[in-house]
Amino acid sequence: MQSHTHTHTLILILILLVLQTLTTTTSQSLPSPDPTTPLIIDTFTHLTHNALGFWHGPLENLRTTHPPNTNSITLHPTDPDQIYHTQLSPATCFNLRPYRRTHYLHILFTGSTSFTISLTQNNPHCNASHAPFPETWDSVPATPYAHGPHIYIPLWHFAIDHARALSVAFNGWYSRDPVTLFRVELVSAGAVPIGFPVPQRAENGRVVLRCSRPGAFAFGIDDGQPGLAQQVVRILEEEGVLVTFFVVGRGLRDPETNFSGVYGEMVARGHQVALHSDTHRKLEGLGSIAEIDREIVENIKSFRDILGIETRYFRPPYGTIGARTRQRLANYIKDPQIINWSVDIEDWLWADTKTPEKQREAFIRGVMRGGNLAVMHFLSPTTVSYFREMIQFVKSRNATIMRIDQCLEDPDSPPLKISVP
Ligand SMILES: [Zn+2]
């Protein structure tokens, strides 16, 4: 199985770097909502900041161009993880609550509608140096909301804590056709043209990057080498902790790997085993809904047929997630939980280099920033060699290690075992 490029962490680091170099106005107070005046977020007049004076820009090597003689930006996506943010605050929190019921996000654009529009939510500290940053986001697909050059999305269609809004973001590309943005603003319902077709809000899954239970810490362990599994099992047994494994359907069905035996044993030992797609592609970038559906359905089927389990927990391969994948998950799974991370051991970057100890540094850095939900793999012996030390580091900080469903206080998760000395 291929190793990952965990791009979301890079996104966060890049945002931080950009913010550190920016000098913006520090005002966090907002104009009170005025039913007649739109709140203009971005007119793409300046290269580095929007109409509110805050940072906007592309991340993950999203190429942009500026059409001559217009205030606009053209995005040229090549990968679903590429993202363009326009921030509502200097990486703090913007209170959209007064606008939530009355206002629409209006986007004036031309070009492809094969993308996702997200509203991101900052962490409870409203602080870019705390992990996770952003804490979560909700997304809608552009296509059903677009009509001519306009997109109107009721703010309440974004299920986030509107008091902690951070940015409007464009990502989840599933076509390489360019998109040109002219204006991003909040307008009152009265400013939406009469008869403009606004769809119903579609169900989707929530995106989770952190444990909610106080003092909890969870390891989400993706793809591994069958040959390293017994070492992982031994460490978990000796340290007396439960974790969550995210497993692809194809690997389970492959008799060469013995993954059916490995993960059957993990289930029997009390670990959580959760979905990770069927063939480990970037689901959001797939051209058709049918392909996304197949990745979800075959993964669910393999779990049922081979492991005899059902789960509503899913980790997207590469952390890649967009509106279509979220909605398709909700089509097959009731209340899906889409699990990314706030601590990245960066094994995909360092495991097989001359400096494997950078995995340990990356892990500790993430924990010190407040992250409590980790991503790792057991693809490399170096990663497994640091695993016990990382568990002990978390314990030394008085955090309790548990499965992800337990750390999210899921009422259907098994009760926490109280160890009696
Ligand atoms: Zn993976």
From TrEMBL:
Top-level taxon in the UniProt lineage: Eukaryota
Keywords of this entry: Carbohydrate metabolism, Cobalt, Hydrolase, Metal-binding, Signal
Domain NodB homology residue range list: 215-402
Cofactor(s) required, per the database record: Co(2+)
Stored Gene3D superfamilies: Glycoside hydrolase/deacetylase
Signal peptide start and end residues: 1-27
GO molecular function (one): hydrolase activity, acting on carbon-nitrogen (but not peptide) bonds
GO biological process, alphabetically ordered: carbohydrate metabolic process
Protein name: Glycoside hydrolase/deacetylase
Organism: Aspergillus ellipticus CBS 707.79
